[in-house]
Structure to design on (234 residues):
C-alpha cells in the first residue's frame, strides 16, 4: 500500500523554527518528485514547495515561504523534509506531504499532478 | 505567479443533478489543469489530470474539459458521496497554484 506519514507538527512561537518529516512507503521513493501543500484552518489548499526525484537538483517554493523554508529529501531513508525558519502566524496550517503522479519529473510537478496525499501534520504558530 | 479563480465558491444541488464548476487561469496554461476533491476532515483526492484524464478508480460521472484559460469540471449525476469541496490546480509552471475551491452542498 502506498503511504505517506507526516510528523513534526506542533505549537511553536513566532520567529522559531520547526522541521517536518514525511515517511514514504509502498513505492519507489526516489523515482518521484515530492511536495508539501498546506491548508490553513477553514481555508483552501496552498502549494508550499516541491523537489525533483533526483536528490534535489530542482526545487521550487511558493513566494510566501521563499527564503524561510527549505525542502529536502533523503532517498536512502525514503523521507521528505521541510525545514521551516522564521515562522509567522500565517504559517499556521495542516501540512500535507504529497507524491507526484508521474516518474522523473524534472521541474517538480510541472505538467503533472499530485496523486497520493498524507493525512497531514498540524503546525500552529502562536505566542 | 499564475492565479486560478474558481466559480462559484459554493453551490447547492440535489442527488442526480448535473453540476458544473468553472476554473479560470490568469494566463494560458495549455491543458495543464487538475481537479481534486476534498471531503470534510480528509486529505484531497486527485480526480482529473491534464484537463480531462480520469484518475484510476474515479467514477466516470466526473469529466473535465477546457484549454488555455478556461476549464470546467462536470459531475453528470450527483451522488451522496460527491458532496465535498473541489479544487483546480495549474501545473503549467512553478510555483504550482490552486483555485480557491468550490463547496458542493446538499440542497
Amino acid at each position: 500500500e502506498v503511504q505517506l506519514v507526516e510528523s513534526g507538527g506542533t505549537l511553536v512561537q513566532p520567529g522559531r523554527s520547526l522541521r517536518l518529516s514525511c515517511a514514504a512507503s509502498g513505492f519507489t521513493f526516489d523515482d518521484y518528485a515530492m511536495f508539501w501543500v498546506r491548508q490553513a484552518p477553514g481555508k483552501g489548499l496552498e502549494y508550499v514547495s516541491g523537489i525533483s526525484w533526483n536528490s534535489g537538483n530542482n526545487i521550487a517554493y511558493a513566494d510566501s515561504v521563499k527564503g524561510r523554508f527549505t525542502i529536502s529529501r533523503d532517498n536512502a531513508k525514503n523521507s521528505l523534509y521541510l525545514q521551516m525558519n522564521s515562522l509567522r502566524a500565517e504559517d499556521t496550517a495542516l501540512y500535507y506531504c504529497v507524491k507526484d503522479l508521474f516518474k522523473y519529473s524534472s521541474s517538480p510537478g510541472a505538467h503533472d499532478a499530485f496523486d497520493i496525499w498524507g493525512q497531514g501534520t498540524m503546525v500552529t504558530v502562536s505566542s | 505567479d499564475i492565479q486560478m479563480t474558481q466559480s462559484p465558491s459554493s453551490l447547492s444541488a440535489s442527488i442526480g443533478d448535473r453540476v458544473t464548476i468553472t476554473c479560470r487561469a490568469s494566463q494560458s496554461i495549455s491543458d495543464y489543469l487538475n481537479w481534486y476533491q476534498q471531503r470534510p476532515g480528509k486529505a484531497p483526492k486527485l480526480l482529473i489530470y491534464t484537463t480531462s484524464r480520469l484518475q484510476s478508480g474515479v467514477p466516470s460521472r466526473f469529466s473535465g474539459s477546457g484549454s488555455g484559460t478556461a476549464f470546467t469540471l462536470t459531475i453528470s449525476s450527483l451522488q451522496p458521496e460527491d458532496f465535498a469541496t473541489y479544487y483546480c490546480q495549474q501545473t503549467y509552471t512553478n510555483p504550482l497554484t490552486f483555485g480557491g475551491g468550490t463547496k458542493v452542498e446538499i440542497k
Observations:
- The longest strand of chain B covers residues 19-25.
- The CA atoms of residues 22 and 98 of chain B lie 13 Å apart.
- The interface with chain A takes residues 1, 32, 34, 36, 38, 43-46, 49-50, 55, 87, 89, 91-101 of chain B (CB under 8 Å).
